[in-house]
Each structure stands twice: as C-alpha cells, then as structure tokens.
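Supplementary notes for students who missed Thursday's class. We covered one full example, reproduced here. Read the sequence, then the structure, then the short commentary at the end.
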Amino acid sequence: MRHGDKINNLGRKKAHRDALLATLASELIVHKRIVTTLAKAKALRTYVEPLITKTKKNASQEQITHQHRVVFSYLGKKEAVKELFTVVAPKVADRPGGYSRIIKLGARHGDNAEMAMIELVDFNELYGHTTEAAGATKRTRRGRAKKSGNATIAAAPVVAQEVVEEVAIAEEVVAPEAAAPEAKADETEDKEAEA
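Structure (token representation):
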C-alpha cells in the first residue's frame, strides 16, 4: 500500500533520485533554464526552491557559512553554490517564494514523454514585469489588451526598425566599393584634361 506516499520516485532508488535532482538543480542554477520531462521538472521545483530560500537569510557570518555548507551538501558543485549565492540570491531577495516556472512543451517524439521547460522566474526578460511592458498594455484598446497576439504585434515595429538599420549599414558597406570605379574614371578624366 502507498497510503500518504506523495513523493514521485521517478522510477529510481533514493540514491539515484538524489543524484539526478542534484545534477538538475546545479544545471538549473548555472544555466537559469533547462528542458526536461514534466515529472522531473515538478520534482526539481520542490528540491531547488528551499535551497534558494536558504540563500536569502540575512544573518551573522557563521550562519551564512553554515547555509553555504548546507546548500553544498545538496548540490555537490562549488560553481553552482557560488552562482546561487552571488547571482541568484540578490535577484530573488524581494520575492517571497515561487522562484521557478514550469512551461509545458508538448510530447517528445521518441517515447511520447511530456516535456517541460523549468526556469528561474527573475532571469526571464520575456515574462518579466517591467514598467515599460505595463505601460504598453495600458495604451491599447480594451478589447485588444487581452488577446495573446498583441505581444507579437507590439514587437513588430522594433524588429522592422532593426532590419532597416541593418540595411542602412549594408548600403554603407557596399557604397565605398561602388564608388571606387567612379573615382578611377574621374582620375583618368582629370589626367586626360591636363594632357
């Protein structure tokens, strides 16, 4: 019987499962976003969020050292611990929880496993809540603000502007080469006129 057994074993024994979650957590902290199966992403969320919470404790130097050691015992990689305490912790200092987001990606072609992307919330600029994005939403009409297509429509002028700038730069590069034969023709005409 499995009454009250709420942990997802992921088809692995405890040591294998702990090693898997430690590796996934280290990669998530270093890369800020990873793609894995939905079951692993959900298990990883419960594994990594308490570790991120441990980085937020403002206390004495002894307690900070202790938190480093506790997190290292879970992750096992110095690079991930350093990244967590130096880069991730300052960004999530004001957030009361919910440091990760899971986005479903659909089924994997080989075995039809449901895939998902798990990412750290504060490191995604697309879903970030900035004042500029909030201001752009307020300027639209009521009926259009709720449609999902507005994000691509709003981004279209920026893309077009970048393309125009690239074309202008390309014309500047091509222009000196095209002007070179004309300059040679002008020089030969000047020499003929002097003679």
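Commentary. The first strand starts at residue 33 and ends at 37. Confidence is low (pLDDT under 50) at residues 130-136, 150-161. If anything here is unclear, bring it to office hours.
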